[in-house]
């Protein structure tokens, strides 16, 4: 007895259930409190009598169980909790089956949990439905709940969505669920694995199974578990709806899904939104879907199918739509299809009159009222992102819909007929008569009068208020047979005139009718077909034409070539940081020398590039020995004297002029020091000996007579135009970009510099690991290729851009290496493209495995397809609507 008292007083363990006033009035306690004492009470019976079989008091057993819904069920749950020990003992003694309440509370009591009902008792709803989504039950209550539903034999719907169940908890519940009656199982937003799948398979395989709906959205299902489930479903003939959304399914999950669709024709609705099937998985999945004759609704939104230049996904969808005659409802929203992809998909959809609703939000297109996909150059998806509506979604709240997606199925469009009777409806008489519907944005649509003495049109329109007006070739009108409506904002309508000009007219008054809402009937589709306008179909003849090629659209587009403007900037900068201002104190002389430098700075810069490359100094400057070789090629008359004085001039020129010249080597001449050296040399040769009247004349004489002829011998700039900037070279780089980019990124990340740029040390390391070094291709040649490929920078003493290679410079260095490694032989001249193809195996060998995934060596057809395109010559056939 004490335990019973403790249970009554232990309010902390009781479920908090509010009762209505009527229930409180009719409660046993109230009734007993109002009973007169004169009525007398029966004396307490001996406890053993409680265990005797009786027909009157069997509470807590299935014999007296009245159901799980309503106030009586809540009171029964309360009574069972209070008398838990007695009921349990009695059922055991009398061999009575426990009620769901008793079985559930028995486990709750053993585990010392609060007696939360968790669907065992419900306020409202059908007896056959247990809907406890978002109750956060967790595995703590899963054992108790499973014992409770073990005694419920008529459960048809079990919704356990978002209950924090693990694989073990979900499997425990499913293993005790009566399989013969259940039609709908929802496990979404729980974490399931092999145990749960095994329990589900037992339900599916049961011969008496009636399971129609299985929702596994956001359940973290593994690819292995999915494969097992799909193999079982491929043999199932009962399931109608399957949801696998938000499970991060990748390409590896496609094959099990394809096998399931190949053999299962009973599934009518498949939800795969918010997965990662991608382009590769898309093609294979759609090929499998094409073989399925049963699927009606499919949701493939948020799967990253779009933004592919090759149009692989778009072509696959176009092919599916043009051949599949069973799909009626498709969601491709937010796959980021670009305008061209939407155009391709729309063309494939034009031949399909069975898809009554297609969702395309979040792509560069809209769907019009007739079901056509209208590509757009750009669509602001942010403005419409919150309006996305799930395929076959059931709205939980009645709310006004502000956006129409033109889906006949989701929006329950209705078939109507609108007529125009000449001389009765209005004054329009000229043929043809057009109607302008607000669901068409008031675009004109021709009405037909075939076999009739009036004009009519059958259309699918959304329910609600439909506004429209009529027109002929010369005027607009409203019909007398329909109600009228004054527009708050007049409509601006465009109409052409006889001279071909476009005019606009504001319409402020329209006809209006109210379209009654009728639920969409999948089994009885409307007579009107989508995308069924009379149209002209093009018959095509294909010709091959050359694709125009320009540097601006090639792999070289990001390379900054040595233009006159760039050279002038370099000359100005070098004059400012050098000692030229000290050598020439006169401002006029400084300007004259500056102009001379600008006129020849391309030659000076190119010569510096070549000499610094072969000097072997990592900071790219001209060493003494290389400078002496250059001076010898200048062919001075007193060559020995010039070489003797070079040391003095070298020391005067090779001295940093300001702090911060961190990329001035010090043991060689940088670019501005080389220019200063040439000026000092001209002063020494011609001014000190009075051979020239001024420094300007001396400098010009040095350049024209000696320096420039020698510089021409170092000029390699023609290599660009003669060999490198060619279409075949560009196509090679585009077809091998995946490999070359992989190699570039691998070695660019090895050093201490920026991870997206490659320095000389990293370039040398790449050449060494690729096995390119030999007796003829040594370190000097490697440095030469690196230096010659680098773009000219204005400031090469304080900034390091000229020492850190970006990708566009890397591919030029690669081409220069190929040109040197495979020199032309007598009687055999190889193109630069052919030389690079010979070098590619070395690059493929050192390329990371991850970067090689999906890449295939290009064939002759690959080059041909990039050089040429097919141009279509069209002939037109008129196709009548069906």
Automatic annotation (TrEMBL):
SUPFAM superfamilies: RNI-like. It comes from Stentor coeruleus. PANTHER family: F-BOX DOMAIN-CONTAINING PROTEIN-RELATED, LEUCINE RICH REPEAT FAMILY PROTEIN. SMART domains: LRR_RI (SM00368). InterPro entries: LRR-containing (IPR052394), LRR_dom_sf (IPR032675). This is Uncharacterized protein.
């Amino acid at each position: 007895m004490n335990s019973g008292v403790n249970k009554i007083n232990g309010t902390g363990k009781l479920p908090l259930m509010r009762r209505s006033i009527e229930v409180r009035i009719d409660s046993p306690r109230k009734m007993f409190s109002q009973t007169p004492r004169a009525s007398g009470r029966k004396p307490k019976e001996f406890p053993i009598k409680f265990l005797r079989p009786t027909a009157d008091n069997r509470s807590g057993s299935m014999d007296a169980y009245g159901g799980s819904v309503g106030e009586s069920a809540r009171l029964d749950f309360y009574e069972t909790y209070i008398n838990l020990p007695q009921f349990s003992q009695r059922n055991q003694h009398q061999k009575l089956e426990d009620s769901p309440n008793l079985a559930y509370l028995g486990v709750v009591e053993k585990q010392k949990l609060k007696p939360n009902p968790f669907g065992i008792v419900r306020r409202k709803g059908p007896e056959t439905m247990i809907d406890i989504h978002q109750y956060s039950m967790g595995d703590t209550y899963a054992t108790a709940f499973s014992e409770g539903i073990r005694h419920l034999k008529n459960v048809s719907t079990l919704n356990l969505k978002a209950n924090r169940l693990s694989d073990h908890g979900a499997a425990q519940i499913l293993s005790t669920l009566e399989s013969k009656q259940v039609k709908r199982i929802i496990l979404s937003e729980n974490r399931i694995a092999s145990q749960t799948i095994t329990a589900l398979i037992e339900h599916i395989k049961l011969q008496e199974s009636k399971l129609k709906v299985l929702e596994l959205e956001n359940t973290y299902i593994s690819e292995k578990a999915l494969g097992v489930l799909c193999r079982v479903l491929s043999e199932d003939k009962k399931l109608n709806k399957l949801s696998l959304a938000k499970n991060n399914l990748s390409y590896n999950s496609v094959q099990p899904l394809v096998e399931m669709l190949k053999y299962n024709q009973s599934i009518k609705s498949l939800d795969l939104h918010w997965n990662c099937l991608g382009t590769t998985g898309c093609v294979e999945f759609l090929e499998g879907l094409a073989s399925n004759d049963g699927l009606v609704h499919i949701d493939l939104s948020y799967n990253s199918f779009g933004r592919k230049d090759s149009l692989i996904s778009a072509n696959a969808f176009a092919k599916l739509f043009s051949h599949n005659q069973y799909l009626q409802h498709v969601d491709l929203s937010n796959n980021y299809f670009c305008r061209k992809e939407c155009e391709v998909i729309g063309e494939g959809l034009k031949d399909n009159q069975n898809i009554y609703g297609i969702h395309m939000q979040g792509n560069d297109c809209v769907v019009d009222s007739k079901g056509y996909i209208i590509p757009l150059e750009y669509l602001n998806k942010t403005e419409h992102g919150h309006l996305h509506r799930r395929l076959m979604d059931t709205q939980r709240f009645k709310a006004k819909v502000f956006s129409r997606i033109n889906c006949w199925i989701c929006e329950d469009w209705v078939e109507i007929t609108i007529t125009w009777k000449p001389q009765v409806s209005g004054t329009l008489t000229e043929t043809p008569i057009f109607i302008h519907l607000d669901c068409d944005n008031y675009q004109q649509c021709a009405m037909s009068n075939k076999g009739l003495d009036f004009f009519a049109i059958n259309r699918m329109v959304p329910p609600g208020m439909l506004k429209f007006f009529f027109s002929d070739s010369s005027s607009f009108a409203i019909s007398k047979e329909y109600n009228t409506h004054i527009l708050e904002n007049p409509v601006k309508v465009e109409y052409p005139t006889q001279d071909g000009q476009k005019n606009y007219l504001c319409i402020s008054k329209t006809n209006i009718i109210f379209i009654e809402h009728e639920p969409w009937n999948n089994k009885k589709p409307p007579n009107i077909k989508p995308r069924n306008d009379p149209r002209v179909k093009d018959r095509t003849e294909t010709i091959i034409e050359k694709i125009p090629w320009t540097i601006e659209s090639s792999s070289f587009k990001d390379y900054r070539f040595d233009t006159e403007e760039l050279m002038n900037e370099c000359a100005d900068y070098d004059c400012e940081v050098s000692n030229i201002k000290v050598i020439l104190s006169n401002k006029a002389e400084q300007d004259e020398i500056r102009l001379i430098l600008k006129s020849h700075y391309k030659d000076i810069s190119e010569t510096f590039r070549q000499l610094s490359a072969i000097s072997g100094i990592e900071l790219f400057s001209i060493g003494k020995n290389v400078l002496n070789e250059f001076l010898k090629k200048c062919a001075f008359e007193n060559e020995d004297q010039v070489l003797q004085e070079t040391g003095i001039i070298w020391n005067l020129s090779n001295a940093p002029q300001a702090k911060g010249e961190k990329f001035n080597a010090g043991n060689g001449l940088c670019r501005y020091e080389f220019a200063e050296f040439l000026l000092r040399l001209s002063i020494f040769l011609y001014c000190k000996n009075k051979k020239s009247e001024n420094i300007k004349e001396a400098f010009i004489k040095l350049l024209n007579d000696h320096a420039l002829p020698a510089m021409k011998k170092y000029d390699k700039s023609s290599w660009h135009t003669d060999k490198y900037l060619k279409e075949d070279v560009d196509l090679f780089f585009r077809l091998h970009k995946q490999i070359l980019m992989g190699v570039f990124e691998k070695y660019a990340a090895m050093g201490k510099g920026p991870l997206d740029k490659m320095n000389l040390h990293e370039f040398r390391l790449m050449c060494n690991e690729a096995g390119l070094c030999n007796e003829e291709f040594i370190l000097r040649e490697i440095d030469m290729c690196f230096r010659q490929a680098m773009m000219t920078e204005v400031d090469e003493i304080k900034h390091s851009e000229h020492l850190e290679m970006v990708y566009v410079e890397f591919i030029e260095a690669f081409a220069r290496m190929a040109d040197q490694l495979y020199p032309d032989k007598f009687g055999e001249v190889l193109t630069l493209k052919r030389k690079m193809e010979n070098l590619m195996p070395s690059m493929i060998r050192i390329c990371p495995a991850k970067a090689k995934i999906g890449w295939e060596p290009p064939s002759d057809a690959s080059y041909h397809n990039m050089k040429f395109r097919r141009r279509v010559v069209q002939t037109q056939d008129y196709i009548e609507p069906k």
